[in-house]
Amino acid sequence: MNNIAVWFALVLVVPAASHGGPEPEQFRPAQSSLFSQSAGEALNRNFPDRDISFLLLDARTGEVLASRWENPETPIPLGSLAKPFTALAYGQQHDFRYPSHTCRGIGTGCWRPGGHGDVDLTAAIAYSCNSYFRMLTSNLTGADVSDTASRFGLEVPDRETSGAELAGIGPRWRISPLRMARAYLELVRERQHPGVGQILDGMARSAGSGTGAELDHALQNSTALVKTGTAACTHRRHAPGDGFVVALVPADDPRLVLMVRVHGVPGSHAARTAGEMLRRIED
């Protein structure tokens, strides 16, 4: 067991009630509070930059353990963090059969000038391929995505939202950061459902060689599931965009979820910051 899992097991006991036995009321709240205080102090001490916002959640309960995020329940653009849920909405309409696609970079609307070449859904999640998701969402509307959004507790896009806007390309679909973090928890809980396994495989690949690789490199004794995103800046001090990352650790049985926003950088850079934050918790 890695250090993050060991520490988490010691300071945040999973409620016995979930296994049919009595919950140790006298023990769990104090331990949860201890973890929250320690994690919050570690992150605030080592990352005082107010350009960094974060939410740290218990992956078993969705409880917020530590945070520094102004108005985390206010919907904002979250960029490519929406892509997994849009993919599931597409899959719902197509028997969860996902096409392959050739990404040619700028010519097919991707952020990577040289493109990603031939990609399937798993690779498109790993590399956050805009070209793939422009193709996947070309005939989708807000109404098509509404059931999936509701299922995962996300704000429903308005009916006029369509196409690539539903993959977080552009600022139209706004989702609260806290709801998004918890939606990723639900994604892991539904890992046996159609389509979800391909998405989680993509998040694992993101950590290994995709847009979240900087996070995995920063960790010493753990692995992660990672999704990155870049979205329009909503700070009063405006920047061209903000970078977002959701990381679940350890990858095989998540105990923690860390969501990070870094002002004025792309999501791949935010992944590096998130990895350094998780390493501080691990230490």
Describe the structure concisely.
39% of the residues lie in helices and 16% in strands. The protein has helices at residues 3-11, 28-46, 83-93, 121-126, 130-136, 142-151, 177-189, 196-209, 213-218, 267-282; strands at residues 52-58, 64-68, 76-77, 101-103, 117-119, 174-175, 225-231, 242-249, 256-263.
Helix content: 25-40%
Beta-strand content bin: 15-25%
Kindly provide the name of the CATH class.
Alpha Beta
Characterize the overall form: globular
Largest sheet descriptor: 5 strands, antiparallel
Q: How many strand segments? A: 9
Query: Whole-Å distance between the termini?
Result: 15 Å
Biggest sheet: strand arrangement: 2-1-9-8-7
CATH homologous superfamily heading: DD-peptidase/beta-lactamase superfamily
Total helix count? Answer: 10
Radius of gyration: 18 Å
Order of helices and strands: HHEEEHEEHHHEHHHEEEH
CATH topology: Beta-lactamase
Name the average pLDDT: 88
Assign the structural class, choosing from mainly alpha, mainly beta, alpha/beta, alpha+beta, or little secondary structure. Answer: alpha+beta
What is the count of distinct domains?
A: 1
CATH architecture: 3-Layer(aba) Sandwich
